Structures are given as structure tokens and as C-alpha cells.
Amino acid sequence: MDQAASMPMGLYTVAQGLYQGILQMALPNEPVKNAVPVLIYGGSSATGALAIQFAKLSGYTVLTTCSPQNFSYVKELGADVVFDSHEEGIGKKFREYTNDNLHLVYDTISIPETAAVCAGGFSSKPGGKYMATQFPQMERKDVESSAAVVYTMINEEFRVGEFFFPPKPEDIEYGIRFGDIAEKLISEGKIKAHRVLTNEDGGFAAIPDGWTLMRENKVSGKKLVYKV
What we know:
Blueprint: H1 2-5, H2 8-20, E1 37-41, H3 46-57, E2 61-66, H4 71-77, E3 81-84, H5 90-97, E4 104-107, H6 112-121, E5 129-132, E6 144-147, E7 158-160, E8 163-165, H7 169-187, E9 196-199, H8 207-215, E10 223-226
Parallel strand pairs: 1-2, 1-4, 2-3, 4-5, 5-6, 9-10
Antiparallel strand pairs: 7-8
């Protein structure tokens, strides 16, 4: 039950990030025949862990980043190569590993620092696409960039800071179709939930403590789950 609680938001975030948005990757039920490289920045995050699995099932060569203590975990999920997110100059390593052929990047962290690292990894040739979960500035003007907010799949208007989002019926329709695909993969054991750290008795009152832990970078490779 705890692991099930960790999945819904991440699944639909991945649906938008890898498939519905500008990356337009092949779905797992119709994988690509040639293993095109894709970078999942932040592979040990809750969204990143799911994105690695979906991208691999879709037939792509998966590059990812995380802290060294999570290397074995993301490789178990399907990552082909892992880079230390704390290491200087890893953008250059992305380009070297892909022979200057990295055109698809999904940044699950999406802060200015990670956007800058991703910018350094894109191919020098045109056609790069950068998909984010927030709204950092992509410094490469030759790279198409976008962000998706999963709440558009509830078909109601909302705001995130200065940004206004109207209802998007097409998003909820896409979410329903993707949900059918995801349900089948989960039932077949091909998609696994992210590791969880469960608060057994804190309830709603303990959630602010979880935000504090995250701000202090004390949560790594796990999803916080609260029993209420």
C-alpha cells in the first residue's frame, strides 16, 4: 500500500514528460527499433526512477545522474550509464558518451543548476529538446524547451506562481490512455514503485517535517509517504 501511494503523481508526470510533451518518445507498447539516447536527470528521484523504467521499456539508451550511493539502484531500474550529479563537468561527459548525439533530455530536478548541466550535454547539432518539471531557463537557444505540470490532467484551471493554466481536456484524455498502458506494465511486474520512507504515526502534522528534510537534502533515493 505504501508503494502504491507513491506512484500516481509520478506516473502521470512521466506521461507528460517523456511522451505527451515535446520529447514525443515512443511508448513502451511500440518501442523504438534503434536505441536513441535519452538523459533522465535525477534518476534516483521519485519521478526519475519511474522515467528510467519507462524509457528503457520504450527502447532507449538511458543516461542518468544521481549521488554515488544510488548508482546500483538506478542501474537495477534499467539505466545504461550513471553519472555523479555532484561531479564538475558532467555535461561534457554526456556529450562524449553519446558521441555528440544527445537530443532528448528530461530534467526531473529542474533548477537553474541542473538546466545548465543539461545544456552542456546536448549535441552541438540542432534538434535538442529539453523537458522540465519546473520552469528553469535553458541557456541553449538552439534547444527547444518546455515544462509540464501534472495538475493539467485534472481538467481544472489552476495557478503555479505567476503562471495560469486553463482546463485542458486533451490532457486528461491522454492520461486515461496512458493509465491503461501503465496499469498493464505494473501488473506484469515491468514497472516497480520507487523506494519509500514511511512515516507510520505522524499523520498530516508530520508533513512539514518532511519538507524540511527535503530542503536540507536529507532525502535521497526514496519517496516520503505518510499514513493518515
